[in-house]
Amino acid sequence: MDDALAFDVFDRQCPSRGTLEHVTGRWGSLTLGALYESGSRFNELRRRVDGVSEKMLSQTLHALERDGLVHREAQPTNPPRVDYELTPLGREVAERLLGLIRLVEGRMPEVLDARGRYDATRGSERGGRGGR
């Protein structure tokens, strides 16, 4: 049996589910995308991933490193320098994520139109039921 078929992300006990959550969560996908452009130091990465807190970025990097997607290299300098880069697996995952990111960015006019239609419909429904 092919090892890839032994995992089922839809099974709550499957370890692939945790990795998928790390990769597709807001900070995981943005961190992988930012690292795809080039390796980075922590603060460079934090500036690139606008809005992420230091704590969340640190947790995200640890999870991605544990999953084998990010390589962390500490330089023995004073002050210490830590660089992060994607592993070959991380690059492959990031390429696929960036395809999805580009698709979403490119189709945002349609998304915004759909949101406007949805909100207009929902607003008229609420207005017709006493503001509920």
Largest sheet: 3 strands, antiparallel
CATH class: Mainly Alpha
Tell me the number of structural domains: 1
Spans with pLDDT under 50 lasting ≥5 residues? none
H/E order of the elements? HHEHHEEHH
Strand content of the residues, in percent?
5-15%
Mean pLDDT: 90
Write out the strand line-up for the largest beta sheet, numbering strands in chain order.
1-3-2
Radius of gyration: 20 Å
Distance, first to last CA: 54 Å
Shape-level CATH architecture: Orthogonal Bundle
Which percent range fits the helix content?
55-70%
GO molecular function: DNA binding
Domain HTH hxlR-type: 14-112
Organism: Streptomyces wuyuanensis
InterPro entries: HTH_HxlR, WH-like_DNA-bd_sf, WH_DNA-bd_sf
